[in-house]
Structure formats: structure tokens, C-alpha cells
Amino acid sequence: MRRGWKMALSGGLRCCRRLLSWVPVLVIVLVVLWSYYAYVFELCLVTVLSPAEKVIYLIFYHAIFVFFTWTYWKSIFTLPQQPNQKFHLSYSDKERYENEERPEVQKQMLVDMAKKLPVYTRTGSGAVRFCDRCHLIKPDRCHHCSVCAMCVLKMDHHCPWVNNCIGFSNYKFFLQFLAYSVLYCLYIATTVFNYFIKYWRGELPSVRSKFHVLFLLFVACMFFVSLVILFGYHCWLVSRNKTTLEAFCTPVFTSGPEKNGFNLGFIKNIQQVFGDNKKFWLIPIGSSPGDGHSFPMRSMNESQNPLLANEEPWEDNEDENRDIGRGRSKLTVGSL
């Protein structure tokens, strides 16, 4: 009886937590809906007097608004991609691993299993990265999200504002959402500013629209400042081919820690997120190369293009030469 009550209480708490997780999204949706009303009706249809100015404002506003809402939708409802079945332990391997009480033997078992997989990153202690909750060997750049309760390929972070985990499947959409959000706020602020000044000087009658126009400028500027900082940070991450987690915790390879282990050069780094076809870069359509389970690495790329070896040192020169040489030999052998 008590066990049944505990299970019911646990289920109720999980349900409440899921509902509460949508509160930030609901706040954003309500703000966007109000901004649409304030801009289209209170500004363009009521405040702006010139018909030509109304048409121009509305055309450009709706063009930006469509891409803004489209990318936000894709960021929310594109499910995080999980590792495929070959990274999960088989039933027999799982039983053997759980029944083994010696940590060193468990570690060796994972090493033997990882030899069959394209896995080159390790834990800080040099062990194979294993998720004991999902019972799988983590692919490179994969991490377990405690909020989503799953391992996510190329996980960047869990974003409460989209109530979703940002990773391989939707990182492009998230970046586009940030870009169009910045553009949306900037467009509103620049077109509203002139009428804000007119209301401030008393050149326009003090009607209901005054509140909406003044508050619209304030909200647009406030969001613009915060969004442009966040967008700039993620642009920097893309230019280095890093995730947020990798920026805070240096990835460890079989050769040791390498801050720029996935850095392929500026253009190739961008292509790792947006793909080779530039006509898809601005459209929220999946175009990221690969399957999210393995990624090209700097050390392997250097063997084909030695010029990369001199790009962006991350340690002292002596340490860099030793680490790159050691990383190149080990990772190349591992890939074969």
C-alpha cells in the first residue's frame, strides 16, 4: 500500500515538473504574441499615418517574424538524437558488467568493447566514457542530460527557454533562432524609435497606443542586449567547433586533453554545423553533416593538411608539439 502511494506521488511530481518546464516557453510565447499585436496593430495600423510606410514596415516585419517563429518551433520540437543501438551494451555484456565487482576488470571490459566503436574521447582519468544510466558507451561529444534523462549526441546544453536539449539534431536551428531573435528585436527597436521620440516630445496624441509603443521599444532593447551577447558567444563556439560543455571542460582524447581537438579551421568549423550547401544556411532545414556519432578531428586533419598544425596553439610550444604529435599517432592508429 505504502509502495503504491510512493509510486503515485513520484508520478505526480514528475508530471508537475514536466508542466512547470513549459513555463519559460509560455512566457516567451506570450511576449511574442503581445509584440505582434503592439507592432502590427498599435504601431503600424494606428500610429503610423503614411500608407507606404505602413506597407513597408509590415512586409519586412512579417518576413522576419516568419523565420523567427519557424526557427523557435524547430528548436523546441526537434527531438534530441540519441546514440544508436551499437553503442548500447548487449544483454549478456550488461549482465557480465554488472555482476563484475572489480572496478579494474569493469574498466578493461569497456576498453575491449570500445575497440569496436569509433570512440576516441575519454574521461579525465583516461577511462572509456560509459553512461551507467543508459547502459551505453558514449560516442564522442555525447553527454547525459539529467533533465531529459537520456544521452544526447553532441550535447551543447539544456535550454529552459525552448524546454529542450540542444545538440546535434537541433543546434543549427538554435543558432538560427538566436540570429533571427536578434534581428527581430533590432528591427522593432529601429522602426519604433522614431515614434518613441514623437510620443516623448508630445508630437503625437496621448492615446492607448503610446503605452504599447514605449514598452515595445524597452522590451526590444532589453532582449536585444541579452540575445546579442548569447549569439556572439555561440558564434565564437562555432568558429572553434566547440560545444558549451567543451568550452567549460576540455575534451580528453586517448592522447590526453586537447582544447582544439575538433577545430578544423574557420570555414570547415562552420560547415560542421550548417553543412556544405550555403543555400540552406539561413533556412531551418537539417543540413549538418554526419550522423552525430563520430566527428573529424584536428589531429587526423593535420596529417592531410600540415598547415593546421600551426593554427591556434592552446598550450606552451613545447607542450603543444608533444601533445599534437602524441595525439596524432594514437588517434590515427585508433581510427585504423
How is this fold's topology laid out?
Layout: H1 2-20, H2 23-47, H3 51-77, H4 91-99, H5 103-114, E1 121-122, E2 130-131, E3 136-137, E4 143-145, E5 150-152, E6 157-159, E7 164-166, H6 171-201, H7 208-240, H8 244-248, E8 252-253, E9 256-257, H9 266-274, H10 298-304, H11 317-335
Antiparallel strand pairs: 1-8, 2-3, 4-5, 6-7, 8-9
Helix pairs in contact: 2-7, 3-6, 6-7, 10-11
SSE ordering: HHHHHEEEEEEEHHHEEHHH
Radius of gyration computed on alpha carbons: 25 Å
Arithmetic mean of pLDDT: 87
User: Structural class per helix/strand content?
Assistant: mainly alpha
Query: How much beta, percentage-wise?
Result: 5-15%
Q: Give a quick account of the main beta sheet: strands, pairing sense, barrel closure.
A: 3 strands, antiparallel
Q: Tell me, briefly, the overall form.
A: elongated
What are the main properties of this structure?
single chain, mainly alpha, two-stranded antiparallel ribbon, elongated, disordered C terminus, acyltransferase, PFA4/ZDH16/20/ERF2-like, transmembrane helix
Molecular structure report:
A hairpin with a 4-residue loop joins strand 2 and strand 3. This protein has 11 helices and 9 strands. The protein is elongated and about 80 Å long. With 336 residues, it is mainly alpha-helical. Strands 1-8-9 form a 3-stranded antiparallel beta sheet, covered by helices on one side. A two-stranded antiparallel ribbon has the order 2-3. The chain has a two-stranded antiparallel ribbon with strand order 4-5. Helix content is 58%, strand content 7%. The protein has helices at residues 2-20, 23-47, 51-77, 91-99, 103-114, 171-201, 208-240, 244-248, 266-274, 298-304, 317-335, and strands spanning 121-122, 130-131, 136-137, 143-145, 150-152, 157-159, 164-166, 252-253, 256-257. Mean pLDDT is 87; it is low at 303-336. It catalyses: L-cysteinyl-[protein] + hexadecanoyl-CoA = S-hexadecanoyl-L-cysteinyl-[protein] + CoA. Its EC number is 2.3.1.225. It is a multi-pass membrane protein. Belongs to the DHHC palmitoyltransferase family.
